[in-house]
Specification:
This protein is of the alpha/beta class. The protein is about 30% helix and about 25% strand. The longest helix is centred in the N-terminal third of the chain and has 17 residues.
């Protein structure tokens, strides 16, 4: 094969709308006998333009790359959104992609825009591509579950509200986070619910709203178990003046030491808000109820 069909964007989350576009890329490539390519960015462009406006991310670069290749994309390029790239017109950017990555066709999402010259119409993008020898085609709009649109910002909003069910529906998979188990205060084991404290190591990733969630926990050896995860400040057991927000998970039916190991949690459903109990016995009873609820889902 010589040359490729490309699409451009952040593809944060690789949600159902993204998958719809990727399927069009694959069909276009198959019809033309070309390879498939996704051109994306190592950091969100807003983090360079105005860091205070940059959204939290749904996927890091490694996970995003894996999700893209899982959809049959053969090559993924992570560009640095530097000043040179930022100042390119749409035509200059297409020429850059042609010369450096062999792009012959660009499939654009129905509402996607790129280029410093801020082109607005489909005709303008088609003409910009024609000048440098690239065919520009537009994908059809995607209608999500129930006819609603799907976008990364809507998924972020749902997660920020704790509605992981809605977020998962738009993602087409459970929202998940991966991190390393670090030592905590070991308060959970004193009440029969030993938890693993997770350090994400990446503060650009989005944490769902505070609360208790049913999760699937995958250990670094591939074993997956149901768990219940708390995001919050543990108000019943931590009476610090400035409590730290933690991410801790109780893995149901599993015993052992996890310090230093990498684990992944997939959010299945929200169980309840985090709240303070009057005493430890009330907390233990609630945790027993949470365990049953998590296993019943």
């Amino acid at each position: 094969m010589s040359g490729c069909v490309a699409t451009i964007g952040m593809f944060d989350g690789v949600h159902l709308g993204h998958r719809f576009l990727l399927d069009r890329v694959r069909r276009e490539a198959a019809e033309r006998g070309l390879e498939t390519l996704v051109v994306t960015f190592a950091e969100h462009p807003l983090s360079i333009i105005n860091a205070s406006l940059a959204p939290k991310r749904l996927t890091d670069n490694i996970q995003r790359g894996r999700l893209l290749t899982d959809r049959g994309i053969e090559r993924v390029v992570n560009l640095d959104f530097d000043d040179r790239l930022r100042r390119m017109t749409a035509s200059e950017f297409m020429e850059y992609l042609r010369d450096n990555y062999g792009v012959k066709v660009i499939v654009m999402g129905f509402n996607h825009r790129f280029g410093h010259d801020r082109l607005t119409s489909r005709h303008q993008y088609i003409e910009a591509g024609r000048k440098v020898g690239i065919d520009v085609v537009f994908a059809e709009p995607y209608e999500g579950p129930g006819g609603a649109g799907v976008c990364s910002s809507a998924i972020r909003k749902s997660l920020a509200e704790g509605d992981v069910t809605a977020a998962n529906r738009m993602l087409g998979r459970p929202y998940n986070l991966k991190g390393t188990v670090v030592p905590g205060r070991r308060l959970g084991r004193t009440i029969g619910f030993p938890t693993a404290n997770i350090s994400l190591g990446d503060d650009s990733l989005l944490l769902p709203a505070r609360g208790v969630y049913a999760v699937d926990v995958t250990l670094d050896d591939g074993l997956t178990k149901r768990g219940m995860l708390n995001i919050g400040v543990r108000p019943t057991v931590d009476r610090s003046e400035i409590p730290e927000t933690t991410l801790e998970v109780y893995i149901i039916g599993w015993e052992g030491t996890l310090y230093g190991r990498e684990i992944e949690v997939a959010f299945i459903a929200r169980l309840r808000d985090e709240r303070r109990f009057d005493n430890i016995e009330q907390l233990k009873k609630q945790l027993d109820d949470d365990r049953r609820a998590a296993l019943d889902i």
